[in-house]
Amino acid sequence: MHPKRLSQLCVTGFVVTLVALLHEFLVPGQKLDGPQAGGLEETILDKGTFTRPTTLQLGRFWSDQQPAPQRSLAASFSPGVSDPTANYSSVVVIPKMQEDDVSWIAEELPWLNFTIYIANDPTTSMHPPKNKGHEVMIYLSYLIDNYERLPDIVIFMHSHRWTHHNNNLLGFDASQMIHSLNNAHIIRQGYVNMRCQWSPGCPEWLRPSGVHDTLSRQEERVLERCWKELFPFDPLPLFLAQPCCAQFALSRDRIVSIPQSRYIYYRDWILRTPLSDYISGRIWEYSWQFLFTGNAMHCPFEHVCYCDGFGICFGGETLYHDYLQLSRQRDNLEAELRRQNRTYFIDSNNGSVSGISDEQYTAIHAQRWTQLNTQFEELEKELNGRRNQAQQRGADPRLRAEECGRPWKEGDSF
Question: Closest Cα partner for 280 from 231, 223, 237?
Answer without folding.
Answer: 223
